[in-house]
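>> received
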Amino acid sequence: KQARAINLLFVGEYSARKNMAWIRHACEALEGRDDIAIWLRLEPNGTQLPGAIVELLRGAPQKRPAVKWIDRRVPELRMPSLYRAMDGVICPGAEGIGLPALEATACGVPALCLDWGASGEMARRWGMPTFKAADEMVDAFAVSGGYGVYQGGFWGQPDWLDFRAEAVNLVEQRDLLRGAAEVASEKVRAEMGFRAAGQVWREYVEGLG
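>> returned
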């Protein structure tokens, strides 16, 4: 009932690695477009989420896309339907693989990805839109608040000017990108689906013999 003419989705946790400032940048790039809704399917992260989103939007244009927090769990079996109801999925994080980008593409929905790491490489491989990473990376350990697993690691950061341009392109070229995503979905299923993974495991096990 709250859907707009154009609907965009983000899936993931609310964290520094996800470059959450993208919400404000998207709202500024799409200023005046109150026919757009940005949906946030965020992992549970306490009660601070509404306040954090409000803080991000402080100073954003008054007439802008509506930002909607999906504040209840969406069962995994319902996720394909959620993806397919969207015009695009935004994947701004510094990812290893980036499951939301894979899942969206497998559903035939264009995913806009940060061109850094494996998720950027896969997006380019399947012809999905990307936006550039900035020249400098950030210290993952420091930005994560000292989370041990990130010690010695670095994360890519978005080039925000390029992100804004590609966010506009995702909206304006959504029909063309949807067609490309539907083609790409066949490649994703063939290369990354359970059948393909099972064949890789079978070859691996047979190779041990």
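>> Strands lie at 6-12, 36-42, 66-69, 88-91, 111-114, 130-131, 138-139, 154-155.
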